C-alpha cells in the first residue's frame, strides 16, 4: 500500500493522537472490593480476604527473587491492606515507630486520593511490626513527610505482623496486615471513597538480605515518590 505525503502525515498524526489518549491510562488498574469491618490478626486469615484478589509486586532491583504480593479491601471505616513476603532472613533492627524503616526490610503503601494536588499518604510496616505513617507534599520532586497529630483512638492505624518458618525452623515468609481509618486521612479529598471513586496507589517492598532488592506494583521512573506513575485504584 502506498501513501502520498499528506496521507502519510495524516496517518502519523492519527496514530500519535491515539497513543497520547492511551498513555494516561497505561498504569496498572486495580478494582478494590468492599467489605464489612473485621478484626486483623497479622496472618490474613479472616474470611473477608477470600473475596480479594492478590496483586503481584514485580522485582525491579537486586538479586533476591522473593515472591511478594498484596491484597486490599475497603469498608465504611477504612482501608485494609495485607502484605505477604517470601523471605529467608529478617533484616530489621529498628525497635521504635517512626524510625527510618526504609533502610531495612519493609513494606510500603502509598495513597494519592486527589490527582489535582501533589499530596499523598505513605505508610511503612517492618517485619518487627513497627510503623511509619506520613503525609507527603511533593512539589516537582521536593518532598518531606509530616507525622500525624493526635495519632490515637479511632485515628490510629491498626497493624500486626506474623512470620512463618519452614520444616527446618528457618524463616520462610512474613505477613503484615494493616487497617488505615479514614479519620486519619481526612481532610484529604475523596475520603471516604464511594463506589466509583478513583485513587492513585502504589506498593513497594525493600529487602536487604543480599544488598538492596526492591519490588513495586507499578513501575516508577525515579524513586518511590514518583507519584505520577502510581497505579489506579477503583472502588467497586
From TrEMBL:
<feature type="signal peptide">
    <location>
        <begin position="1"/>
        <end position="20"/>
    </location>
</feature>
<dbReference type="Pfam" id="PF06452">
    <property type="entry name" value="CBM9_1"/>
</dbReference>
<feature type="domain" description="Carbohydrate-binding">
    <location>
        <begin position="42"/>
        <end position="233"/>
    </location>
</feature>
<dbReference type="GO" id="GO:0030246">
    <property type="term" value="F:carbohydrate binding"/>
</dbReference>
<dbReference type="InterPro" id="IPR010502">
    <property type="entry name" value="Carb-bd_dom_fam9"/>
</dbReference>
<dbReference type="GO" id="GO:0004553">
    <property type="term" value="F:hydrolase activity, hydrolyzing O-glycosyl compounds"/>
</dbReference>
<protein>
    <submittedName>
        <fullName>Carbohydrate family 9 binding domain-like</fullName>
    </submittedName>
</protein>
<keyword id="KW-0732">Signal</keyword>
<dbReference type="GO" id="GO:0016052">
    <property type="term" value="P:carbohydrate catabolic process"/>
</dbReference>
Amino acid at each position: 500500500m502506498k501513501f502520498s505525503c499528506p496521507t502519510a502525515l495524516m496517518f502519523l498524526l492519527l496514530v500519535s493522537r491515539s497513543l497520547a489518549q492511551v498513555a494516561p491510562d497505561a498504569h496498572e488498574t486495580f478494582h478494590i472490593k468492599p467489605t464489612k469491618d473485621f478484626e486483623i490478626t497479622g496472618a490474613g486469615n479472616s474470611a473477608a480476604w477470600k473475596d480479594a484478589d492478590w496483586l503481584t509486586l514485580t522485582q525491579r532491583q537486586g538479586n533476591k527473587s522473593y515472591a511478594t504480593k498484596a491484597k486490599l479491601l475497603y469498608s465504611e471505616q477504612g482501608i485494609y491492606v495485607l502484605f505477604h513476603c517470601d523471605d529467608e532472613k529478617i533484616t530489621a533492627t529498628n525497635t521504635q515507630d517512626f524510625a527510618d524503616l526504609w533502610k531495612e526490610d519493609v513494606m510500603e503503601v502509598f495513597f494519592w486520593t486527589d490527582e489535582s494536588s501533589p499530596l499523598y499518604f505513605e505508610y511503612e510496616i517492618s517485619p518487627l511490626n513497627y510503623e511509619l505513617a506520613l503525609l507527603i507534599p511533593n512539589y516537582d520532586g521536593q518532598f518531606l513527610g509530616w507525622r500525624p497529630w493526635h495519632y490515637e483512638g479511632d485515628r490510629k492505624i491498626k497493624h500486626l505482623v506474623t512470620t512463618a518458618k519452614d520444616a527446618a525452623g528457618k524463616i520462610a515468609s512474613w505477613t503484615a496486615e494493616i487497617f488505615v481509618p479514614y479519620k486519619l486521612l481526612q481532610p484529604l479529598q475523596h475520603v471516604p471513597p464511594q463506589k466509583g471513586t478513583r485513587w492513585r496507589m502504589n506498593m513497594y517492598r525493600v529487602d536487604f538480605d543480599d544488598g538492596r532488592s526492591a519490588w513495586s506494583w507499578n513501575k516508577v521512573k525515579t524513586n518511590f515518590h514518583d507519584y505520577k506513575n502510581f497505579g489506579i485504584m477503583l472502588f467497586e
